[in-house]
Amino acid sequence: MNGSAQSPHSVLEIQLRRGPAGLGFNIVGGVDQQYVMNDSGIYVAKIKENGAAALDGRLQEGDKILAINGCKLENLCHSAAVELFRSAGEEVTLHIQQRPPHSSNGPLGSRSDGDSSSSVPSLALLGVFVAAVAITAFVLYRRPGGFRRHTPF
């Protein structure tokens, strides 16, 4: 799996009306800032609470935006995509490829919901603990008297 292909049957057209806070979502991606491995598409990074997209409810974080007002977002750098969104007007039509519910593909560095993702923080915590014990042992060993217990007379 290369992270770029999602099924074509999940394409959705969404019409949003720009509100006081804009369209209510942030985007990532582009040819200069790939968000998904081997895919230079534009993706929804964050849905802003109470924004136009959140109130509509259909746009989700991780969805790929294929077009805005009929302009395809293929092979654009991030700044060019941002400019298209800024100049899109009050009524905006988006063509969205919805994120598959349980895809092994996804943003670079993403983890699945499997057991392996929960072990990463545990291993990091274990590493910090072992390092702390090692540093403490080293400091005690280097001290005059080392590990010997001093008994007061």
From TrEMBL:
Chief location: mitochondrion
Subcellular location: Mitochondrion outer membrane
UniProt keyword rRNA-binding, yes or no: no
GO CC annotation terms, alphabetical: basolateral plasma membrane; cell junction; mitochondrial outer membrane
SMART domains: PDZ
Superkingdom, natural source: Eukaryota
Transmembrane annotation, as ranges: 120-141
Region (Disordered): 96-115
GO term, biological process aspect, one: receptor clustering
Keyword vocabulary terms for this entry: Membrane, Mitochondrion, Mitochondrion outer membrane, Transmembrane, Transmembrane helix
Any one GO molecular-function label of the UniProt entry: protein kinase binding
Annotated PDZ domain residues: 13-100
UniProt feature, compositional bias: Low complexity: 106-115
Subunit structure: Binds (via the PDZ domain) to isoform 2A of SYNJ2 (via the unique motif in the C-terminus). Interacts (via C-terminus) with RALBP1. Interacts (via PDZ domain) with ACVR2A (via C-terminus) and ACVR2B (via C-terminus). Forms a ternary complex with ACVR2A and RALBP1. Interacts with MAPK12. Interacts with DLL1; enhances DLL1 protein stability, and promotes notch signaling in endothelial cells.
Protein name: Synaptojanin-2-binding protein
Taxonomic classification: Eukaryota, Metazoa, Chordata, Craniata, Vertebrata
Gene (name only): SYJ2B
